[in-house]
């Protein structure tokens, strides 16, 4: 029945790891025709499903066993919840007859995951199973997407029942508002027309709604400057003259100053995360704030909103474009922000001897002609990738934003490559996070997944070290890792060719070689360990109080 | 100030946990919470009292409650005319000598004695929370041995009470 339901949902691939309580499901999956990727840890499976969901927009499907299998998923479930990624997760559970007796490999998965799922089920009757699966896929992928968990007791998974998938989904308590209120849209248009210093802020909601084209059309119409959140990168072409770059803690000076100075901030599909806003007292303090979000609970949660619009970003943009958007004169403002962008670009001190991590990201961008999916782990390299890789297309950027999960990169890259076999995938990872999930290298070999792993190796937990340098008087408590494994040998032990790059010329050659080599490749890039990510909004500071704007 | 929310939920395993987990995660403090089945099979009504000075917190609580798939409706009935009742059971010291005194004392509260012991009586009362507070304050000097309150169960009034008339007058909404 489960297999039939997965077929009905047109599931292309399953990520998972078998175990005792989920054995009936794995038996049903045997030669069922739906490809299954066996990762080397359940965390790997769920991050892979996230990567898959991020680039395809379809729900990622994960299967794990009861107890430890399920608890190993917790990090990934939280990550998907924070970044609104659609997942359907099946966990095995001990038989209903022994639930609650602390049976072997029993854990209250429902209880553990309740705060980190969009919704969850424990199937009590096998005849409910088709309806539960159908509801789960519906809830995971509509409204604000998120992870939905289905806990399957072993005896239920073993039982058989009547498969009926025809009944439509009807959940009275779940009716997301997709089409926004027309009156509110009219107010948005009026506010835009009246604005002298408008700024558009686009978040991942635009990507989830597949509304990038509408966003582009809006900017073409109103010719206002635009900025992205970290997760919104790619929703608007990164090389467009009105694009100010990413905003937030490590965003551009121009984007952050534009937020500070604007008189109208139109937020489409971003949730005003504190990494974006900095000190709320100084965030868009002169602006009329408009917030378009499919999740009403996000509106007014962090930033008081003047014009709330609940609805799908695509629908909202389409309706907005039907309104009169004849703008007043905003050329002075556009000139001003563009001048700020021109005179305050990202900077780093070039080095002939050593490989600068920023330069490394530029090299990756040059070598693939800009046409690649970039997946990162979490830390300094993540911020450099966000800063120095201009994303021109949607769904080419996969990163752990809300939860900041180290270990996310490699498995997410696996899922991204499985979702998009036709585009090269780079996993840009740090040496710290990579070592949290590096066992997944085996998956690259096993399934011949041609991910190019770019290891930004600074022999430290770079972002931790940076904070200790800036805010803890250089007391580098447990952030330096002078002794690292030989990553080339390690990679070769898995059967993956690996190269080392220690300067710019080597990096150029090795990244090219990686692209030319079929199958997975690892490039161990040695970069200086004392490099910092600038500019930066220090913790507690306002968005206009960036440090390190100039060399 | 205290806000009274009534929440209609699916009567399913784990729903109470979902609601309380949400309050825990967001750091909202619950003053009182009651739950029981409603007139419709499969639905339960929760009455949640929260203390919040900032209206934005209440708004956020309501929005977060709405996000739960098992939550069908949320009403903030704080500023509406409502019937809100609470049950209290109090075991209070009472010797045979002062028993008459205790009985007289509780009579205006329409409370009743539901169990009698040698040195104590158990009093039951229902009513508005402030009335129950007053009863407890009155009985405290005698020595309260055990006390259990249910928290309030509430919904809006159907009839226009005098306070409702006053409210509508203030809002200029009274049909004349």
Automatic annotation (TrEMBL), chain B:
Occurrences of domain ACT (ranges): 4-79
Known catalytic reactions: 2 pyruvate + H(+) = (2S)-2-acetolactate + CO2
One Pfam match: ACT_AHAS_ss
UniProt pathway: Amino-acid biosynthesis; L-valine biosynthesis; L-valine from pyruvate: step 1/4; Amino-acid biosynthesis; L-isoleucine biosynthesis; L-isoleucine from 2-oxobutanoate: step 1/4
GO terms assigned for molecular function: acetolactate synthase activity
EC numbers on record: 2.2.1.6
Superkingdom of the source species: Bacteria
PROSITE patterns, A to Z: ACT
Keyword list, A-Z: Amino-acid biosynthesis, Branched-chain amino acid biosynthesis, Transferase
UniProt entry tagged with the keyword Transferase: yes
Role this protein plays: Catalyzes the conversion of 2 pyruvate molecules into acetolactate in the first common step of the biosynthetic pathway of the branched-amino acids such as leucine, isoleucine, and valine.
Family, as annotated: Belongs to the acetolactate synthase small subunit family.
PANTHER family, sorted: ACETOLACTATE SYNTHASE SMALL SUBUNIT, ACETOLACTATE SYNTHASE SMALL SUBUNIT 1, CHLOROPLASTIC
Record note on quaternary structure: Dimer of large and small chains.
Protein name: Acetolactate synthase small subunit
